[in-house]
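ok so i was messing around last nite and threw this chain in just to see what happens. nothing serious, just curious
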Amino acid sequence: MAETKRLADPVSRRRFLAVGGGSTALAAFLAACGSDSGTTTTSTTGMKSSGGAGETAEFGKGDVGILNYALTLEYLETAFYRDVVKSGLFKGAELGTIRKFGSEEAEHVEALTAAVKQLGGKPAAEPKAEFPLENAKSVLELAATVENLGAAAYLGQAANIESPEVLASALAIHSVEGRHASVLNTLLGESITPDGAFAKPADVKTVLESVEPFIVG
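result:
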């Protein structure tokens, strides 16, 4: 994995390009991680953001837009872990951990889908994605990048959430995101808290640019 100094900047596009052999990292706003192997399906509508207060507007209005942004990214994380499981690169305890992360991410997809519907919105479609799964070490590096950026993405949207219930759910999942990241950082011999005492946020534009290389349709 990139050294701790690079981990300290979770919003650096150069960092993601360095980790995936020309690819960038996945991220999720309201999710932790996913399960299974390399491909998934979602429309890419709204995958570009202009930034600013309405940066998730293309995913829907208000909290619905934020939830659909989260859901779209969570689809990608789930697809990533599903592909990792299918790759055969991991065995034993490491495979068990990856499966657990994947299962938790799948639960987040279900919860986010239900939340969007409860608010009267239409859940985002699932994009088709592919990820570089060359060897165990590079996959662990990419997974750690995914989780660290996921935590940063939560921070980037927390202040924009209007509903106290949605915010509480976001914070609950954000905690899981950070815990997943710390496990992966530890496996790679990196700092559990790469940003130090205060985590750094990531905006929508940065996150979407990071996942764009993985979208194939």
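not much to say yet. The chain is about 55% helix and 0% strand.
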